[in-house]
Amino acid sequence: MGKIGYLKRIIAAYVLKKNSQLTFWHGVPEINENANYDKLGEFYQKFSYKADYPGPFDENGVIILDYHGNVGKQKYHIAIAQYGLACYNRWKETGDKIWFEKFMNQVKWHEENIKQNEKGIWLWYADFDWDYHGILKAPWASGLAQGAGMSLVSRAYKETGNKKYLQLCERVFKSMITSIEDGGVMNKISDGVWIEETLSPACHILNGFMWALMGVWDYYLITKDETVKLWFNKFIETLDKNLNKFDTGFWSLYELSDTKMKMLASYFYHSLHIVQLKILYNISNNRNFLRYAKKWEKYRNNLLYRKMAFIYKSIFKLVYF
């Protein structure tokens, strides 16, 4: 049923051209030239295509994604946060208050939907099953969701001064520095600490970790707490030490799961990796991030490598999805 459901979603999105979750996710990743890396402001990516998402939305203006198949229409914590960030950027760009209202609609969802787990850790959860190396059973948490939510809510605190948003960020940050075994989203690995996008399995998804790091940095910018910065630096060091594992010699990997065939990034996610690395270089001044960004740009500009990546990725999807 998992593979059949996956094929239904792909056919609906790519062949029948129906409005789907891919309408929201797969635009062109771009650095936001108006972003400030030392003071909280516009989010680091433009997210223009996310702001232009046509819907559906619920009665409170919260974004809904249509996954078709057996998943259907769902409110997805990561999408809600990123749509809110897109609206925030659009508000800063245009000054039109309608975008601020849309931004705050997504903030309110985060305010009302955080839950404390059995270990006492507060998290945002997805309330639907998802097929990824097996079934992620609802409710399931994600380190990316916590990081993106913190990027969103930290900007609500900046704009309103309401300390409930600061307190919300404090709760979420705790989840990001608490191990998975103790109820959080952090994985202690042999050479550092990794914020996991999926917790079971915890397979070191690269884009999810990098987006989560931006959330940690945003929290530091509103607190200037040196403990937060120390944690951010620990995460940066882990990324620095592990980037080579994602380099295949012609393309980047999406994750580091234990499948026999390694999971290559799609063209979109490979491009996203490049943008994210440049952003994290701008934040951290770690030149290794810029080196890999330029290296992976060369891969992307190589026609043979693009074809190799496409063929490899197509075979991988047939085998594993």
What features would you describe in this structure?
The protein has one domain (2-242). 55% of the residues lie in helices and 8% in strands. The protein has 12 helices and 9 strands. A hairpin with a 3-residue loop joins strand 5 and strand 6 (135-136). Helix 6 (143-160) packs antiparallel against helix 7, helix 8 (206-223) runs parallel beside helix 10 (267-284) and helix 10 runs antiparallel to helix 11. The termini are close together. Residues 13-17 have low confidence and may be disordered.
Please mark out the parts with pLDDT under 50 across 5 or more consecutive residues, or reply none.
13-17
Strand content: 5-15%
Determine the fraction of residues in helical runs and give it as a percent range.
40-55%
Q: Count helical runs.
A: 12
Q: What is the radius of gyration computed over CA atoms, rounded to a whole number of angstroms? A: 19 Å
Strand elements, count:
9
Question: Could you give the distance between the termini?
Answer: 10 Å
* Assembly context of the chains: single chain
Strand order, main sheet: write it out. Answer: 3-4-7
The major β-sheet equals: 3 strands, antiparallel
